Amino acid sequence: MSSNDRVIIFDTTLRDGEQSPGASMTKDEKLRIAKALERMKVDVIEAGFAIASPGDFDAVKTIADTIKDSTICSLSRALDADIERAGEALAGANSGRIHTFIATSPIHMEYKLRMQPDQVVEQAVRAVKKARNLCDDVEFSCEDAGRSELDFLCRIVEAAIDAGARTINIPDTVGYAIPHQYAELIRQLIERVPNSDKAIFSVHCHNDLGLAVANSLAAVVAGARQVECTINGLGERAGNAALEEIVMAIRTREDLLKVHTRIDTTQILSTSRMVSGITGFPVQPNKAIVGANAFAHESGIHQDGVLKHRETYEIMSAESVGWNANKMVLGKHSGRNAFRSRLQELGIELASESELNAAFARFKDLADKKHEIFDEDLQALVTDTQNEEVTEHYKLVSLEVASKTGEVPQAELVLLVDGEEVRASEQGSGPVDAAFKAIESVAQSGSTLQLYSVNAITQGTDSQGEVTVRLERAGRIVNGNGADTDIVVASVKAYLHALNLMQCGVARAHPQVGGI
Ligand code: KIV
Ligand code: ZN
């Protein structure tokens, strides 16, 4: 296949994905995901929206300074200040990209931007030129292209390419498109824009009608050669096209689509799990590719067929996306070197010797409670260790719970609050409820619990429970995570992590809110 048959995979988990309510991530969490995306050979990683907040800037900069094998991109509105900030954050990148956008649909231009179409074209051209002065690789997006007029799109796209944009993105911002119609839009643009051969056409589909993946693939058939997508389909509202579905559809139906990607598909499952663990967005069991049932055959007829010849009911192998790769890796007697080298094999880098020591101490504790330690246990353990990046105003010292049939559950805990020991005791409808009430009797955080979820990390009753607690206060949402073989302890860790995030958080701006 020629280079024209390659589809560029542009991952926006760290930017559009983070716009899912409740999916905000810390800098270190973003860096871990970026490293996993690099391992997966994602072509472009949209690391954030540099001007949104100092935290976003810092995350884009750190990722740009660290990742070497993927292009790192920052979003910016078509504004000088945004573009300059993006350029600054990307200065250290091996390969950087500024992604600038402006809305092009009549409804957005009239009501959101309050600008005439001519002014929008002028602003777009100015923004692309400004970005090209800072970076060779510039992408221009026509926000709400799915509801824009074709003639106007042709005009602005031609002008943006003339101004120096190398990639033209045609987003279906509100998830309104239908596959054949969206494909026709892409086909018409490529045909009618006189300089279309000087740019790569890209698509960015939202899933409001459940069509994001179908629309993206239809656009590829029509000539698009970049797909913007996210791990697990995370993203604004109903989310974006799921990377794992796009990549596996292209790979499985190469016979029909006649294109390929450079993704290492064996990294898909572990990355999906990492993103789910960090954001607290669980993956539904019947989710394509990465759901727990994606390769499980329940009916006897199917099982029989698969045992006789796998392809009777399987169109791709579970191994090709990383299933069945979790080996029993370590146990109670494993030493520090074995631990370190398994982390390295998993692509987990700890920032310092003291982080490694802390993770190893947790590993030993876990190995005392749990016979077999799997890769997933190591991932959770490291998440816990790296949670320590967040200043710990609240820290668990000890917890005692009493729960007996016919009696009201009770939790007693000792916390360190800014270094001082505080005791609390409360009753609740269950041990977790009692423990959360006890924490709140001390913290008085004024936040509301929006989500409480527990997942078994591996199989068996000795599995660690991974808990996510989502708290909301004054419009700010944080996700806390905790893992332990005792799910009440895991729950308390997750609650305290959320409170600590709440304490040290910085509010961020939303790229699509606020006009030019
Ligand atoms: O959905 C959208 O239009 C976007 C753009 C900023 C690319 O996310
Ligand atoms: Zn979007």
Automatic annotation (TrEMBL):
Database matches in SMART domains:
LeuA_dimer
Entry keyword annotation includes Amino-acid biosynthesis: yes
List the signal peptide residues. Answer: none
Keyword annotations: Amino-acid biosynthesis, Branched-chain amino acid biosynthesis, Cytoplasm, Leucine biosynthesis, Manganese, Metal-binding, Transferase
Query: What Gene3D superfamilies does this protein map onto?
Result: 1.10.238.260, 3.30.160.270, Aldolase class I (3.20.20.70)
The UniProt annotation places Mn(2+) binding at 16, 204, 206, 240
Q: Where in the numbering of this chain does the Pyruvate carboxyltransferase domain appear?
A: 7-269
One annotated GO molecular function is: acetyl-CoA C-acetyltransferase activity
> Positions of the region Regulatory domain?
395-516
Query: Which processes are annotated in GO (biological process)?
Result: L-leucine biosynthetic process
First-level EC class:
transferase
Q: Which GO terms describe its cellular component?
A: cytosol
Q: Which reaction does it catalyse?
A: 3-methyl-2-oxobutanoate + acetyl-CoA + H2O = (2S)-2-isopropylmalate + CoA + H(+)
Cofactor (UniProt) = Mn(2+)
Q: Which HAMAP family match?
A: LeuA_type1
| Record function comment | Catalyzes the condensation of the acetyl group of acetyl-CoA with 3-methyl-2-oxobutanoate (2-ketoisovalerate) to form 3-carboxy-3-hydroxy-4-methylpentanoate (2-isopropylmalate).
Q: What interactions and quaternary structure are annotated?
A: Homodimer.
What family name appears in the similarity comment? Belongs to the alpha-IPM synthase/homocitrate synthase family. LeuA type 1 subfamily.
- Classification via PANTHER family: 2-ISOPROPYLMALATE SYNTHASE 1, CHLOROPLASTIC-RELATED (PTHR10277:SF9), HOMOCITRATE SYNTHASE-RELATED (PTHR10277)
- What is the recorded name of this protein? 2-isopropylmalate synthase
Query: What is the organism of origin for this protein?
Result: Thiopseudomonas denitrificans
